[in-house]
Amino acid sequence: MGLKSFCLKKSLWVFHFAGASCNNCDIEILDVLTPRYDAERFGIQLVGSPRHADVILVSGSINQRDKPRLLEVYEQAAKPVFVVAFGACGCTGGIFAEGNTFAGPVDKIIPVDAYIPGCPPKPEAMLSGIVKLTKQI
Amino acid sequence: MAETLFYFFIYPGLLFAGVVGGLLSWFDRKITAQVQFRKGPPLLQPFYDFLKLLLVKETILPARGAKMTFLIAPVLGLFGATISATFILLPLFNINIGFEGDVIVIFYLLTIPSLTYIIGALASGNPLASVGASREIKLIVSYELTFLLLFAAIILKADQSMKMSEIIQMQQAGAPFIGSISGVLLFIVGVFCIQAKLGLVPFDIAEAETELAEGAFIEYSGTVYALVKFTKYIMLFILPALLVGFLMSGFNWEGIGILWSILKLLAVVLLITLIRNTNPRLKIKQAMRFFLIGMNALVIIAIVLIYLGL
């Protein structure tokens, strides 16, 4: 394991992209940063700009309007960047999968490195997903 | 020549100040975590962040910005921080080279990093960055006068001596300046000026994470952002060190003095961190009023007290 991948693994900055989400996943993401789960002890930080992001966390179903924005955010991020599909809607489309405006699950639009299923996933599930992601690096 | 370069680039300049600043940045984050009942990041976290940005990440140039200015601004900022680090830390570590740099030089050099943030932000062509830059300009306008008055008060207190080393020697021979009423007032003003210079929470108006998404630094990525981070680490070390030198009789590197020196520095950083954790962000109007009226009045009272010999 080289220095580069070690440092990347130790400091993953997360940019949160919320699609047409019911906001439950968004609230669970905030839970991960609370004192009980404290993602900062692994070096995980939420950042406000996709330029600083190492991980793009996509929650919610992606509809026709979100699709170009998601693509734009993905292109704006400095590579290497990892994409995590969060929640049932992010992974498969969930109950919106057959909707009129649905533009396909996240992995049809941009390459996805990790899936965290659940509706909403528990904070523990998100931490384990991030751990699995770091094992890939 | 080689010796001078050593002073600037290794000890106590670029490398040393950056490493100590990184450790202080960890201290700041750890204390923040403790205040919020969290465990906090590991000791080397600031260096992981820095190395990741430096080695791994791609640097993106803005398509519609001034590319060269955008790239050069953080480098200039790092130079400014390094030179001011050298001039502040040389007297604090009792090293004598020909030119010491009086405190007025230090005052001007300390402005360079903030100025380069503004230049870089305006060159990036991002609307949020330019809002951040304009806020940073307003912030500089408000705190810089207070900071200059603080320097004037210190010079007055040190019998019109403008040399950092003489100011420190005077305190080590007599009592530290903070032991008087005017010294306490100057310390309060100094802490708030440092807070604004570092862009920490009551005055993080320029990078306001929730509304401007890092403001002035929004377009920076990869290696250039690593340089910005490094500049911030250096500033987090040298500004508290400057205050320790001005008011708390500097550092003493003999015997038990080493422990006291480190504790003094950590105490100032701890105070800054606690202020940052217990206050909400001000609006730019409130910040300007705070400095232009409140803090300036405090410095002027301190200067009057110094004239009266208190």
Secondary structure tally: strands of chain A: 5
Reading side by side through the largest sheet of chain A, how are the strands ordered? Answer: 2-1-3-4-5
Instruction: Measure the end-to-end span of chain B.
Output: 44 Å
Strand content of chain A: 15-25%
Query: Distance N terminus to C terminus of chain A?
Result: 9 Å
User: How many separate helices of chain A?
Assistant: 6
CATH class descriptor of chain A:
Alpha Beta
Approximate shape of chain A: globular
Count of domains of chain B? 1
Number of domains of chain A: 1
Name the shape of chain B in a single word.
globular
Helix/sheet category of chain B: mainly alpha
Q: What order do the helices and strands of chain B follow?
A: HHHHHHHHHHHH
Order of helices and strands of chain A: HEHEEHEHHEH
Radius of gyration of chain B: 19 Å
How does this model look, in words?
The complex is a heterodimer of chains A (137) and B (310). Chain A has one domain (25-136): Rossmann fold. In chain A, 37% of the residues lie in helices and 15% in strands. Chain A has 6 helices and 5 strands. Chain A has a 5-stranded parallel beta sheet with strand order 2-1-3-4-5, sandwiched between helices. In chain A, strand 1, helix 2 (24-32) and strand 2 (45-46) form a beta-alpha-beta unit. The longest helix of chain A has 14 residues, at 123-136. The mean pLDDT of chain A is 85. Chain B is mainly alpha-helical and 310 residues long. Chain B has one domain. Helix content of chain B is 72%, strand content 0%. Chain B contains 12 helices and no strands. In chain B, helix 10 (222-247) crosses helix 11 (257-278). Chain B starts with a helix and ends with a helix. Chain A binds chain B through residues 3-8, 10-11, 35, 38, 40-41, 43, 47-49, 51-52, 54, 76, 78-80, and chain B through 29, 33, 36-42, 44-45, 48-49, 51-52, 55-60, 209-210, 212-214, 217-222, 225.
